[in-house]
Specification:
TIM Barrel, alpha/beta, 3-stranded antiparallel β-sheet, 316 residues, binds flavin mononucleotide, 11 strands
Length: 316
């Protein structure tokens, strides 16, 4: 089966593969640049970092990719600094902006002026239609197999055909895709491209702590659970001492709250929990992960991950 051509506004990546944005500080410049160089779309996790940090990540990613390929940023609407982060990314001439976890009309107005394509992350055909009407260049259809915050409890295999038939803009499938066989299944179901995150975290270029990657490599299917997030959405993560504390209502609050979210339930500090995991304090951290992490058994260079996916796709 031929690879589809993914078009997001004026952008045409060599391969229809988006590396899903991962916050906080999981998809940073080194991973993003490697994906862009390989012909996919590399996406910086832009939530939970300062405006200066975002500016620096974009500049470093451009430098590492030698200005080749397409670089995007993923910013969650739930972030208090959402619009400032969007404006910062635009001022750094980011190629594309991915937004999820809420909806903003303002982002479309802002991006229209700079002609920056916006891709909305949605989990229903209703949200996809709203995104298309508002001016989205494409949507990511994200099923319940995805890591991080979830907008649905339905499988990508159920929602993808519904979303595809509801809109004319390209639909990128996300959630649980770990190899070229999974990718082929999504393309057969109508996807114009795929977004993959967990597989790319287990790459040499992803610069989270080794301890984080080891938790992924040891994960069994039953270890991946749904947790409550202070954002007000369920989240998919790997069960550990920290998620047991969340379940018991005993997870710690921040020593100093930076008011990073528009609305925070105040149950625990998700920023600190995600940064702890990223830095290797895995038992005090929240380890977001896709449902199919158990299928991935190796840490590989991004170029090898691309080669494998494309080979498997051609065999599927
Ligand atoms: C560690 C981690 C962090 C994530 N952070 C974000 C985020 O900040 N914003 C977002 O829209 N999605 C986030 N996601 C979701 C991914 O971008 C992606 O859509 C999803 O994980 C795809 O499923 P997969 O991981 O099974 O490939 C995150 C996922 C993971 C695993």
């Amino acid at each position: 089966m031929q690879l589809p051509e993914l078009k997001i506004g004026h952008l045409k990546p060599r391969f229809p593969i988006v590396q899903g944005g991962m916050s906080i500080k999981v998809s940073t410049a080194s991973l993003v640049a490697a994906v862009a160089r390989c012909g996919g779309i590399g996406v910086i996790g832009g939530t939970g970092i300062s405006l200066d940090e975002l500016r620096e990540e974009i500049r470093t990613a451009r430098r590492l990719s030698q200005n080749q390929g397409i670089i995007g940023v993923n910013i969650m609407y739930a972030a208090r600094e959402f619009m400032q982060l969007v404006k910062t990314a635009i001022s750094e001439r980011i190629d594309v902006i991915f937004t999820g976890a809420g909806f903003s009309r303002e982002v479309f107005n802002e991006c229209k002026q700079s002609q920056t394509p916006v891709v909305s992350i949605v989990s229903s055909s209703r949200a996809a239609v709203l995104a298309e009407k508002s001016g989205a260049a494409a949507v990511v259809a994200e099923g319940c197999e995805a890591g991080g915050h979830l907008g649905t409890d339905r499988s990508i295999k159920e929602i993808l055909p519904e979303i595809k038939s509801a809109v004319k803009i390209p639909v990128i499938a996300a959630g649980g895709i770990t190899d070229g066989y999974d990718m082929a299944e999504m393309i057969r179901l109508g996807a114009d491209g795929v977004q993959i995150a967990t597989r790319f975290l287990l790459s040499e270029e992803c610069d989270v702590a080794e301890e984080y990657k080891q938790v992924y490599l040891n994960a069994r299917p039953e270890d991946v659970i749904i947790v409550k997030s202070p954002v007000g959405l369920p989240g998919r993560a790997i069960r550990n001492a920290f998620t047991d504390l969340i379940a018991a209502g005993e997870a710690p609050l921040a020593e100093e709250c930076s008011a990073c979210l528009r609305h925070c339930s105040g149950d625990y500090c998700i920023k600190e929990a995600l940064l702890n995991a990223r830095d290797g304090k895995v038992n005090e951290g929240l380890i977001f992960s896709g449902a199919n992490v158990h299928k991935i058994k190796s840490i590989l260079p991004v170029a090898q991950i691309f080669q494998n996916i494309l080979l498997e796709y051609s065999l599927a």
